[in-house]
Design goal:
two-stranded antiparallel sheet, mainly alpha, 9 helices, single chain
């Protein structure tokens, strides 16, 4: 009975946060398929959706910072078995799922850049987005802004960014976050592409814009 009560407590404590954060993380992933995999022209609607994609994208790597909730649960749960069999798997699957959504979103972007003959811009685009997400993660974790604050509180958001970018501690946090995202993204990208490539689930474009798959 004590174990069941502990399990219910863990789920009630984390279910809402995990569900909401995963929902936010998968929004840009869904948009990335619409933007980058459907061959749509860059119309006004396309650019509007692209802006929404960028606004919500930091929510995916932001989940990495939720490791603090894993630490809280480990501290509050006395059972080693509950920590091993429930707390760790729950949080690790949650964190990996959110970050994987980020990786797949950028892989789709890279596919699009290859398709339009901009393959040399992929690394620069990825690093630029990592930097934007590092700033977004800082704004979400510390001043506690959300993606929709771009519309609801644009003045406050801009002033906070300007003020924080001249502070040593915020800049250090943003830089460390950028490094962590960059390293993890590279590792996850290699694994993801290898798996998808072997399964024939994705195609890549050569410089002449002809697609190539594992079967070729």
């Amino acid at each position: 009975m004590a174990l069941i009560k502990t399990l219910r407590w863990i789920l009630s404590r984390n279910a809402g946060r995990i569900g909401w954060n995963l929902f936010l993380a998968f929004i840009p992933l869904g948009l990335s398929f619409w933007l980058f995999r459907r061959g749509r022209s860059r119309s006004f609607t396309w650019w509007l959706v692209f802006v929404v994609f960028l606004a919500f994208l930091p929510n995916a790597p932001y989940i990495l910072t939720d490791i603090i909730h894993l630490i809280y649960d480990v501290r509050d749960v006395n059972s080693v078995w509950t920590v091993t069999l429930v707390v760790f798997p729950l949080h690790i699957i949650f964190i990996l799922s959110g970050f994987q959504a980020y990786v797949l979103s950028l892989i789709n972007l890279g596919y699009y850049l290859q398709r339009i003959g901009r393959s040399k811009s992929i690394v620069a685009a990825e690093l630029f987005i990592h930097a934007l997400c590092a700033v977004g993660i800082y704004l979400g974790r510390f001043p506690r802004y959300n993606s929709w604050d771009l519309l609801a509180k644009p003045d406050d958001l801009v002033s906070t960014v300007v003020e924080d970018l001249i502070g040593k501690i915020p800049l250090a946090i943003i830089f460390i976050t950028f490094v962590i995202i960059t390293i993890l993204y590279w590792l996850f990208k290699q694994i993801t592409i290898a798996v998808l490539w072997q399964r024939g689930a994705i195609a890549f474009y050569q410089p002449d814009n002809t697609s190539i798959t594992p079967q070729q």
